[in-house]
Amino acid sequence: KSPHQHASGCRTCFELAPAAARRGESSAAATVKVRQREKGLMTSMGDVFQIDGNLGGMAGISEMLLQSSSMPGTSSASSVGSVGSIDMLDLLPSVPFDRWTSGEVRGLRGRGGYEVDLLRWKLVEGSAEMCERLSIKAHISNGRSGRLQVRSPCAMQYGGGG
């Protein structure tokens, strides 16, 4: 067995939770988090605490809430003559809204030095389409000077700057 294949499921949290979240598999990522809690990896009692399992689990949660990337930029009318990267922040890309109907997180950081100071969501019950029932609010602080594109699963209220 490799060091990440302990009976406690450490490999699952270390490798599978972030990977499932990155692929957009919200149910799979949430299931990994449930398994982690069931196996006691979130505690520090005895020898149950395993740093790679706990940090891997946190990486999985972070990937469910925020994913970031950079793309090579090109010249455009809005940035005449500039060639640089475009930083992308994808908010709530893998959140299992059927399980996490509301939440709030602060202090996530993305590529380019951008900080998500506040990310809040709430899904209200009803029969309408999900995007008609989902409220998303975000505030993002500037990172390095450059271009930023922000995506979310539905329309959102956005604030940023400073």
Short description:
This protein is α/β, with parallel strands linked by helices. The protein has 4 helices and 8 strands.
Helix segment tally: 4
The geometry reads as globular
Q: Average the pLDDT over all residues and give the rounded result.
A: 77
What's the main sheet like? 5 strands, mixed
Uncertain spans: 1-9, 75-82
Structure summary, number of beta strands = 8
Sketch the topology as an H/E string, one letter per element. HHHEEEEEHEEE
Q: Using the CA coordinates, give the radius of gyration.
A: 18 Å
Distance, first to last CA = 49 Å
Helical residues, percent:
25-40%
What percent of residues are in strands?
Answer: 25-35%
Structural class: alpha/beta
Provide an overview of this structure.
By secondary structure, this protein is of the alpha/beta class. It is 28% helix and 29% strand. It has helices spanning 10-22, 26-38, 51-65, 130-133, and strands at 66-72, 85-91, 102-105, 108-109, 115-123, 134-141, 147-151, 157-161. The strands form 2 sheets. Strands 3, 4, 5, 6 and 8 form a 5-stranded mixed beta sheet that branches. It has a 3-stranded mixed beta sheet with strand order 1-2-7. A hairpin with a 5-residue loop joins strand 4 and strand 5. It is globular. It starts with 9 loop residues before the first helix and ends with a strand. Mean pLDDT is 77; it is low at 1-9 and 75-82.
